[in-house]
Amino acid sequence: MALFCGCGHEALAQTEVLVETYFARNVQDYAVMASFIKYFQYVIYGLASFFFLYGILLLAEGFYTTSAVKQTFGEFRSTQCGRCLSLTFIIVTYVLAFIWLAVFAFSAIPVFFLFNMEQTCHTINILAETTPSINQHGWICIDARQYGLLPWNAMPGKACGMTLASICKASEFYVTYDLYIAAFAGAGVTLLALFVYLVATTYNYAVLRFLGGKGIR
Which of 104-118, 141-155, 174-188 has the lowest mean pLDDT? Predict the structure, then answer.
């Protein structure tokens, strides 16, 4: 989660710099995107705080529903309140897992955009080495407006030919690309952790129900 929040925050800031420098001349063209980036950065702050507190709660709940209780009391014990609390955490985590699945899918969009941009630059570099005329690859472009980053009336809104190739060689591009990949990986690890927790706690709750049905409390 920390990987997603930290890298995602910095990647968004670098994205604004890239668009402002290479794809838009007028401030009004990327004002909506800048507002969205600033809003989403505040959302990341909230996500980091929420998951930190929720992780502490899950850790405490996990201690009280494992062998720690048996070591404390010397025998298996559970209460109706404890089982209800476990069920509540399972339901909440299920909801969070499905929400985070959408976040995981959403975090793949900028990775897909920058991957296409890198592959396009690779094609331009190959054509530049094999064709003597610069006009042969001047028609190859990346249009930020097609991805919804800028409005359709934004100028220039796209980068073509060697201009695009020079963008891909800039350090800002590779830093942004790497940050988005790291944020995507962080979102995937967080999703995996949520599902692992769900498997463990669902099994634990099923055991509690089974032993409770046998009269073992």
Answer: 141-155
Asked if 110 and 180 touch (Cβ cutoff 8 Å), the reply is: yes
Helix (H, G, I), strand (E, B) or coil at 107: helix
- SS3 state of residue 163: helix
What average pLDDT does the segment 76-81 reach? Answer: 56
User: Per this entry, what is the length of the chain?
Assistant: 217
What is the rounded distance in angstroms from the CA atom of residue 90 to the CA atom of residue 32? 38
| pLDDT confidence of residue 123 | 79
Chain centroid to Cα 34, Å, comes to 19
Instruction: Name the DSSP class of 50.
Output: H
The 10 Å CB-count burial string (b at 16+, else e) for 12-45 is: bebbbebbeebbbeeeebbeebbeebeeeeeebe
In angstroms, rounded to a whole number, what is the distance separating the alpha carbons of residues 102 and 104? 5
User: Measuring CA to CA, which residue among 141, 149, 136 is closest to residue 120?
Assistant: 141
